[in-house]
Amino acid sequence: MKTKITQSVSHSVSPVAEKLLVASRMEADKLLKQYSTILNGYSEETAKELRDKYGRNEISHEKPESVYKRLISAFVNPFTIVLFFLATISLVTDVLIAAPGDENPRTVIIICTMVLISGLLRFFQETRSNNAAEKLKAMVHTTATVSRGDEGKKEVPLAEIVPGDIIYLSAGDMIPADVRIIACKDLFVSQASLTGESEPLEKYDHVVNQDSKNPLELPNLAFMGSNVVSGSATCIVLATGDYTCFGSMAKTITDKQVVTSFEKGINSVSWVLIRFMMCMVPVVLFVNGFTKGDWFQAFLFALSVAVGLTPEMLPMIVTTNLAKGAASMAKKKTIVKNLNSMQNFGAMDVLCTDKTGTITQDKVVLEYYLDIHGNEDERILRHAFLNSYYQTGLKNLMDVAILNHARSEPYRSMKERYIKVDEIPFDFNRRRMSVVIRDHGGKTQLITKGAVEEMLSISTYAEYEGAVVLLTDKIRQEILSTVRKLNSEGMRVLAVAQKNNPSVEGVFSVKDEANMVLIGYLAFLDPAKETATAAIKALNEYGVSVKVLTGDNDAVTRYICKQVGIKAENLLLGTDIYEMDDNELSSVVENTNVFAKLSPQQKARIVRILRENGHTVGFMGDGINDAPAMHEADVSISVDTAVDIAKESADIILLEKDLMVLEQGVVEGRWTFGNIIKYIKMTASSNFGNMFSVVTASAFLPFLPMKPIQILFLNLIYDISCIAIPWDNMDEDYLKVPRKWDASSIGSFMIWLGPTSSVFDLTTYIFMFFVICPAVYGGAYGAAGVNNVLFASLFNAGWFVESLWSQTLVIHMIRTPKIPFIQSAASLPVLLLTSASIAVGTIIPYTQFGKILGMSAMPVAYFPWLIGTILCYMFLATFLKTMYKRRYGEFL
User: Fold this and answer.
1) 3: pLDDT confidence band, cut at 50, 70 and 90?
2) Model's pTM, two decimal places?
3) Helix (H, G, I), strand (E, B), or coil: what is residue 157?
4) b/e for 179-188, b at 16 or more Cβ within 10 A?
C-alpha cells in the first residue's frame, strides 16, 4: 500500500504545531484517508517501509563529544592561545635561528609546562564529572498496543510506532507519539510532564473548531510524554520521534548552548589583559631598541614582558577552583556536569523553579476534614475512610491520602464493624464514587464522595447546625463560600454525603445517588517541603530572589508560595504573558515572583528576558516542559529522577531535590568565583606593576633591569605560590552578595594597585644602582675598574628578590579588602606556599642556579632596606585598598 504521509522535516515548534492543529479539525474518516490507512492499521511490511522513511520513534539525544574533541577544547581559551603564540616565537628565536651553542629552550619549556598542566587538569576533571553523570538512568523502554492489519492488535516497542498507525490506549499507558483521538470513553490524560498541570485533562474524539494556537490545549489530541489516567481510546498517530511536541522541546536543548555569564566574563577579562599586553609590548620594544641599539635583544625582552603580563597559570587556577567546587558539591550529593556552572551558581541572583516536587512534596495529603460550617469533624473522616477503603477501583492520590491519614486503631477496627454490600465506581462524567456498607445490626448506608458541584447536584439535604435540614439556596451559598475560601488557600476540595437505608431493587446504580445528605468536606494539599521556607529565606539572604514558574493553576500556586514565603501579589498567568510584548514583559518580570499556567515556551521566554535585563538566572526543573527554560538559563539544575531531556540540558544534577542544596551551591559558587577573581586581580595588577617598573627602568638603565629568563622565572615562582589559592578562605560578607564578572573593574584595579609596587620598585632601582652596587664593586656602573657584568648581575638579583617579595606578599594584601593577617587571615596552604616561595626566591641568588640565571649574591646591608621597603609597600597598598573600595563600592 502506497502512503501519502507528509511529515515536516523541520524540528522547530511552529511546523509541528501547525500539523497537529490541522489534524484536530479534520473528521476521522478524512484523516484516515490522508494517511492511507484504515482502522485495521498498516501491515507489518508497510510499517517497516514507513519506519525506514521517517526513522524510529525515538528522540535524538545529545551526542557526547569524543575524547579527542574534549582534550582539544581543554586547551582552547584566549590565554593558552596567547601563550602558545609566545612559545612559538620563543622556539623560533631562542632555538631554531639561534647561533650554534646558544640554543636556549628554557622559555619554551616553562610556558608549555604550565599550559600542559592546566589543560590536562581540566580535561581529567571534566571527564570524571561527565562519567558520573552518564551513570544516571536512561529512558524506560515500554510497548504500545497497535493494530497491524491482518495480525490484529499486537504489542510493539514504542520505537516501532510510525505515523498513521492505529493505536489503543487504556489507563496507565504512556502515550507513545503525538496522536489524534478518533474514539474514546471517559478518557483522562495527565500532561504534567509537558505542561506542569497536576490535574488530568479530559479528552474527546470530536472535531475541534476552537481558535487555540497551542496544540496542548486541544481536547482531541494527545502527546508523547503524557500518560492515560483513566478511560480508553483509539487513536491515529500523527507524528513520531523528533517531529512530536516532545521532540521539538528536546531539540531546543540539543542546539548550540547560549553563552553563559561565566563564558562572557572570562572572555572579557582575557581580552582586557590581552589589550594591556598589546599596548605594553610595542612600547617596550621601541624604548629598548632605540636606547640600547640592540633590536634583537629588545625583541627578546619585549617577548619576556608579554609573557610576564600574561597570567600563565590562569587556566589552571580557574580549572582547579571549579574542580574543587565540583568535588565539594559531590559530597553534598550533587553532580556538576559542566565545571563552568560552578561560578554561574555563585553569580546567580535569580532562581526560577518549578513548583511541584521542588518546593512541594509532590504528593497529596489530607489537610482538613470539615463539617458544613468549616469546623473539623472526625465523623467526616470516618465516612471518607469507609468510602476509600471499600472501593475496589484504582485508588487515586486522594484515596491514598485518606487511608494514610486514618491509620490509627479506631479506623482499623471499623473494617470489622462493617461489610461491603456494593459500590458505584468513579467515572469522570459523574466525578464521584459511592460504596454501600452494612453494619452488624443490619443498617445499610450509602456513602458518596466527589467534586463539590456534583455532590450538591445529588444532595437534597444537609447536616446543618446539628440537624438534617433541607438544602436551601442560602445553605448552598454558604457551602460554596466555604469551598471558595479553601480553594483560595490552594486546597483541592471534595464533598462527602451519605444516605441511610437506601431502598434498592436488585443492584445499586447511579440512580441511587439521589436525595443525599451532604455532611462535610475533605480538603487536600500538595504540601510544601519542610526545608522549603528556610531554604528560600536563606537564598534571599544571599541575594537570590526565587521566582516560581509553573504550569499548575494559580490558586494552588498562590497558596504554596504564601506558605514558603514567596510574595504572590502580582501573580501572572500564561494568558496574561501571551498578550505582552518583550518590552512590557521585561518590566513586569522584575516585580513578579510567581507565574502560573505557563507553557514551556513561556518559561523559556521569561528566563531569556531576565537574562537580557542583566540577571544571572538559574532554572531548576525536572520535566520535559522545563527543558527549553533550562537551556536558556545561565545555570540549569535538574534531579536524577528527571526525564532524560531535562538531565541532558542540566549543568548540575541534584541527587536530592532539595532547595537547601541550592543554597549551599550558591555559597560554593561564590567561594569559587572569589578565589578566581583574587588570582586575576592580584596577578594582573602585580604583573602590570612589575612590567611597568621594568619598562620605566629600562629606558634609563644602561642594561636590562632583569633578563628575560629572570622575568620568566620570577613569574614561575609567583605562579607556584598561587596554586593554593583555590583552597584559600573567603570573608563571610563577600559570600552574601551575588558576584558577576566585570572586566572594567580588572582594568581599574590594575591601574590603581599595579603602580603601587612600581613606586617601591623604582626606589629599589635607585638604592641598588646608586648605593648597594657601587658599595660592593667600588664605583658606579661604567667607572674605571668596575666589573659592569657583576654590577648588572647584582642589580638584577636585588630587583628580582624585591619584586618577588612584593609580588608574593600582594597575595595577602589583595585577597581581602580587610587588614591582612589581623582582620582576615589566609588559609594554611596559602601561608605555607607563599612563605616557601619567598624563601626559595631569596636563596636563589646565593646558589649555582642563581649564577646560571645571571644573578649575584646580595650583601647583608640589602635586607634592612628590603624589609623597610616591603613594610612601606604594605601600608600604601592598604591605604589604596580603602580608597579604591570607597571609589568603586567593592574591592574584589
Assistant:
1) very low
2) 0.65
3) strand
4) bbbbebebbb
